[in-house]
Give the backbone structure.
Amino acid sequence: MQIQKIVVQDLDGKKLGNYSGRLVETAHHWQLQLTDPVEADALEELLVKHTDQKLNFNQQSITLKKVERGTVEHQKDSNDYSHTTFMIEK
């Protein structure tokens, strides 16, 4: 997994947090994949606090409708890491 910085801002541009991981778009979801469990807990708090609101993730505006949290364990590929994934319905 290529690690990036995910910058979270409200719609006024106020920075709410920086997280290490990646933002992935699929047909029906946005996925926030974080490698740091402490950051994942902090992000989950932020997502719950802003339920049904719109936030910007790396300049991408996403409405936090339905968010599910899961964990993915990667053992095979040394370039991949265990990570926490937040699935946000589009």
